[in-house]
């Protein structure tokens, strides 16, 4: 246990000594946590071959994944995981600013390890509520890059430097990476916009979606067609495309079920998409060629998926 509600898991191959697929900083794995498939960032140094580390926050309103990991998984258990995937890669900037909010420290910790190993400049700012809620305290205090780590805690306001203040003082050529809860992501984005920070230098990853602003009661039904078979199904208000297809034996892999992770990303051949995800960029959404069927819908009467 790293804190009262964050647990660290070290994973090795079932066959002792067998190497695991390599990964780069920012990567995550899918973990089968009971009936739920959840994504967790790898937080150990990418150079450490043969094991993965993930840290799991027990969510008060857990939909099953984090609760299963905390209550059911024990040392020696077998877990089914995916190979690492990376949607949050480091680029070759001369200097990087890492902004972590709460459990958002996990991918940024691996980034700090990687940047240090490469001899590249960076600074890591970690925002937490208190010392007791700060994961990896000992590891960061002992890290060879500890002089580049800055802890900001809500219970010590005198030491707290707002992430927008960090950006205001940083060179504009820096690459910025930030991760954390929705409110933290929104705050950094708004602050960066107020400072006219270059969009192409901002990189972030969400662990959960921001609350939807649209009233779901206004949803209308539409039909979805599977291109490969020609099958057409009705998607009623209150059900997602993924749910309807699953009822008919057509499974699309899902993880977050909130349009954040991109696991269910599916091509669209016909129809206008009502994008409700927070994964695709505005430019990608405007192309109208792919969607996240776990939450997005059709604006019209029908849509054809490239399945």
Quick synopsis:
The protein is an alpha/beta fold and about 300 residues long.
Question: What report would you give on this structure?
Answer:
This is Oxidoreductase. This protein is 19% helix and 26% strand. The strands form five sheets. The protein has a five-stranded parallel beta sheet, with helices on both faces. A five-stranded mixed beta sheet has the order 11-10-16-12-14. It has a two-stranded antiparallel ribbon with strand order 1-4. It is an alpha/beta fold. The protein contains seven helices and 16 strands. It has three domains: 6-71, Elongation Factor Tu (Ef-tu), domain 3, CATH 2.40.30; 95-206, Rossmann fold; 216-305, Ubiquitin-like (UB roll) (Roll). The chain is globular and about 60 Å long.
Topology at a glance:
Layout: E1 6-11, E2 28-33, E3 36-41, E4 52-57, H1 65-71, E5 95-101, H2 105-117, E6 121-128, H3 137-142, E7 149-153, H4 163-169, E8 175-180, H5 182-194, E9 202-206, E10 222-226, E11 232-235, H6 241-247, E12 266-270, E13 273-274, H7 282-287, E14 290-291, E15 297-298, E16 302-305
Tags for this entry?
307 residues, Elongation Factor Tu (Ef-tu), domain 3, Rossmann fold, five-stranded parallel sheet, 16 strands, globular
Order of helices and strands: EEEEHEHEHEHEHEEEHEEHEEE
Question: How many domains?
Answer: 3
**Major sheet attributes:** 5 strands, parallel
CATH architecture of the largest domain: 3-Layer(aba) Sandwich
Distance from first to last alpha carbon: 42 Å
